[in-house]
């Protein structure tokens, strides 16, 4: 359902489509400013995700402008004795922070995860992103583990 933000612009949350990639790419550049992104590799991954039954992408749109993006991957989990959803990316354009768009994206992706049979959703966030941590806690997430990672 469309909602007016403080600037009286309608924000629509919808599933992503192929033509959204360039705007999603610009948001990913904001999410990972210190990382050099390979546009073509990311385009291939994005298109694969759109076709996958285990991934979902949603975006926030104002008019023709994509101002937010959230992705979900679903996997089998012995720990949950069922399906577990993992939020891989969540980003809102820096000019649109504080307007409830991130919460709406989280709500939409949570609803999708539930519809697909997930028992739980989780995400990881870098240690230095303390404002993001407060946002996730405000939206009902609990910090219950460390994430360990290794390049292969």
Structure description:
The chain is α+β, with helices and mostly antiparallel strands and 152 residues long. The chain is 32% helix and 30% strand. The protein is built from four helices and six strands; from the N terminus they run E-E-H-H-E-E-E-H-E-H. A hairpin with a 5-residue loop joins strand 1 and strand 2. It is globular and about 40 Å long. The termini are far apart.
Number of domains: 1
What is the CATH T-level topology?
Aminopeptidase
Proportion of strand residues:
25-35%
Please tell me the CATH architecture by its name.
3-Layer(aba) Sandwich
Q: State the CATH superfamily name.
A: Gcn5-related N-acetyltransferase (GNAT)
Measured distance between first and last alpha carbons: 43 Å
Layout of strands and helices, then pairs:
Blueprint: E1 3-4, E2 10-15, H1 21-31, H2 39-51, E3 55-62, E4 65-77, E5 82-92, H3 101-115, E6 118-123, H4 130-138
Parallel strand pairs: 5-6
Antiparallel strand pairs: 1-2, 2-3, 3-4, 4-5
């Amino acid at each position: 359902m469309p909602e007016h933000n403080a600037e009286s612009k309608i924000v629509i949350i919808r599933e992503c489509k192929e033509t959204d990639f360039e705007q999603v790419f610009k948001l990913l550049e904001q999410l990972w400013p210190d990382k050099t992104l390979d546009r073509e590799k990311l385009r291939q991954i994005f298109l694969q995700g759109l076709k996958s039954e285990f991934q979902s992408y949603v975006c926030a749109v104002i008019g023709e402008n994509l101002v937010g993006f959230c992705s979900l991957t679903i996997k089998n989990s012995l720990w949950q004795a069922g399906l577990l959803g993992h939020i891989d990316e969540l980003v809102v354009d820096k000019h649109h922070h504080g307007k409830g768009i991130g919460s709406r994206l989280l709500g939409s992706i949570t609803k999708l995860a539930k519809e697909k049979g997930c028992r739980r959703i989780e995400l990881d966030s870098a240690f230095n992103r303390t404002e993001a941590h407060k946002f996730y806690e405000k939206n009902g997430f609990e910090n219950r583990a460390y994430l360990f990672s290794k390049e292969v």
